[in-house]
Design goal:
Blueprint lengths: L8 H30 L4 H20 L10 H17 L13 E3 L2 E3 L1 H19 L7 H20 L4 H18 L3 H21 L1 H11 L10 H13 L24 H33 L4 H25 L17 H19 L3
Antiparallel strand pairs: 1-2
Length: 363
């Protein structure tokens, strides 16, 4: 008789905490904007609640999907094909803020780059597991992985979404490293990409402005340095205990993207250092339980997939928090489970569903 499957309860509770904490902060940071634009203070909250319900539904379904399904070629290549089609389709969509990042249909929007990150992880885990005995073979193993990663990178960069492209390439590097790819290939690839990355960085004027604003935000306080300065003001005003839930003044049109990319700054202003540490603690719990699932996974494929999903969630959280605190240049990377945005929330919860499925089969 087989053992009874049991999911990782601490991991699920951490995600539950992040999602519900995020809903509270989305309402707090978006209500004024929602009243002005839509005459409904609950507009953004309702949309996010709908996505959260769908996300928990996805988790519930994935818990009952047979574990072997995620390593079947039909699943892997279907996910890969759908992601490639969506990444090509989004490039011909009408531009929003001079970018082609969203597919909009009947009032809903989808950001293909979010799904593409997971599709690439499915592919890499499948390939590296299938060719585990030839993990150092450049032609048979490394080249296909690098080619697919490069293809996704280019398509996402063309949107353009430089932050998402770099994040995806970084997670791919982590998976290749954990799989045992010879370090010389990873170091050589990183060095070869440096001139290309530098050219991409300085080719677009707005990226150069962001870098200069990161280094000297006070040099242009009403222009390129405005966003990061307002974010630091919000975090600084919060002190240890914060000014109280709903009492932020920076969200009143001082801090841009208060309910999306810079929602962590509102947490700092309203709930102070303790609230910020609470968010970080939940992400640390996700990292611990996710890596625990990776170490205890029943096979090499599950171990790589769990490590990739965990790294993606935590890496995005770390980048977002670092941007808010002025430790990294401004990037449009949302805080997972917290920032307003259906595509990000749904795909991250899809990843959590797979992570919980893997944890059920822990050795």
């Amino acid at each position: 008789m087989g053992r009874k499957l049991s999911s990782d309860k601490p991991l699920f509770l951490a995600i539950l905490g992040l999602v519900f904490f995020g809903l509270v902060m989305i309402f707090s940071s978006s209500a004024i904007t929602a009243i002005e634009k839509y005459q409904n203070p609950y507009y953004f909250l309702i949309k996010q609640v709908v996505w959260a319900i769908l996300g928990f539904g996805v988790i519930g379904v994935l818990l009952y999907v047979p574990y072997a399904f995620f390593r079947k070629p039909a699943f892997v290549y279907s996910a890969l094909g759908i992601a490639l089609i969506l990444l090509c389709l989004v490039l011909v969509m009408p531009a929003v803020n001079n970018t082609h990042r969203w597919i909009r249909w009947m009032g809903a929007s989808l950001q293909p780059s979010e799904f593409a990150k997971f599709a690439l992880m499915f592919y890499l885990a499948y390939q590296l597991d299938k060719k585990r005995g030839r993990i150092g073979d450049f032609k048979m193993t490394i080249l296909p992985c690098l080619f697919m990663t490069g293809l996704f990178f280019v398509l996402i960069y063309l949107e353009p979404d430089y932050g998402a492209a770099v994040t995806m390439a970084f997670i791919a590097g982590i998976m290749l490293f954990l799989a045992g790819i010879p370090i010389r290939y990873l170091v050589g690839g990183a060095m070869a990409m440096m001139p290309f990355a530098a050219a991409l960085l300085f080719r677009a004027g707005y990226r150069k402005e962001r870098l200069l604003a990161f280094l000297h935000p006070e040099a242009d306080p009403l222009g390129s340095g405005f966003q990061i300065l307002q974010s630091l003001i919000a975090v600084g005003k919060g002190g240890i205990l914060g000014g109280g839930l709903g009492e932020s003044t920076q969200k009143l049109y001082y801090l841009p993207y208060a309910y999306t990319d810079f929602i962590y700054a509102v947490v700092g202003e309203e709930l102070g250092l303790l609230g910020c540490l609470g968010v970080v603690s939940l992400f640390l719990l996700v990292f611990w339980r996710g890596m625990r699932a990776s170490v205890r996974a029943p096979d090499f494929h599950g171990s790589l997939l769990a490590a990739g999903i965990t790294s993606l969630i935590v890496c995005q959280g770390l980048i977002n928090i670092s941007v808010v605190l002025g430790l990294l240049p401004t990037k449009g990377i949302p805080l997972p489970f917290f920032s307003f945005g259906g595509s990000s929330l749904l795909t991250n919860m899809l990843g959590v569903g797979i992570l919980l499925n893997i944890s059920q089969h822990s050795a």
